[in-house]
Every structure is written in structure tokens, then in C-alpha cells.
Amino acid sequence: PDSGKNRTITPPPHIPPTMQPNPADEQPSYSQSINELENIVRLMQSDKCDIDSLADYTRRATELLHMCRQRLTATEEQLRATLASLQQQ
């Protein structure tokens, strides 16, 4: 049975370019993720939000939020380690 984990999802043509998959499979930067999230929210709040695309927008927003949360957690851990090393000196 196919778990779907390795499958590439091709978004419908009405998905904005910022929501298209990155061909190099590179994660966007934190700033790029935040910008894309803001664009998705604006689109979802506008009259242009197609109900058929709502699940795609929500899925992408969830992915971006997860990436941002991971980056924030990693940054917090790095800062704590740096500050702890300064206190030991």
C-alpha cells in the first residue's frame, strides 16, 4: 500500500506561484515562509478564495507553520546554548 509520503503533490493551477512546490525540494527561509503564510491568509480572507482550494491552502499553511515552529525551536536552543556557554566563562 502506498503511504503517500514520497508522492509529489501537484497543486491545481489556481494555487498562487508562492505555493508551488520548490523544484529543488529546499525549505524556504523563515522570512519566505512567513510571507507565504501572510499571502495565504490574505487569499483565504478575500473573495477570490475558491472553496475547492481551501483544503490545499490549509494544508500548505500547516506545513509552513510547522517549518516556522521548528526553526524557532532550533534558534531558541542555539541561543540558550550560546548564553549558557557565556555564563560558564
Task: Give a quick precis of the structure.
With 89 residues, this protein is an all-alpha fold. Helix content is 57%, strand content 0%. The longest helix has 35 residues, at 54-88.
Protein model, in words:
This protein has 89 residues and is mainly α. The protein is 57% helix and 0% strand. It has 2 helices and no strands. The protein has helices at 30-45, 54-88. Helix 1 (30-45) runs antiparallel to helix 2 (54-88). The chain is rod-shaped. The termini are far apart. Residues 1-13 have low confidence and may be disordered.
What is the N-to-C succession of helices and strands?
A: HH
Distance between the termini: 55 Å
Helix content range: 55-70%
Determine the structural class based on helices, strands and strand pairing: mainly alpha
Q: How much strand content do the residues show?
A: under 5%
Largest sheet: none
Mean pLDDT: 81
User: Count the helices. How many?
Assistant: 2
C-alpha Rg, in Å?
A: 17 Å
Shape: rod-shaped
E-strand count: 0
Low-confidence stretches: 1-13
Write the layout of secondary structure elements.
Blueprint: H1 30-45, H2 54-88
Helix pairs in contact: 1-2
Provide the descriptors you would attach to this structure in a database record.
rod-shaped; 0% strand; disordered N terminus; 89 residues; 2 helices; mainly alpha
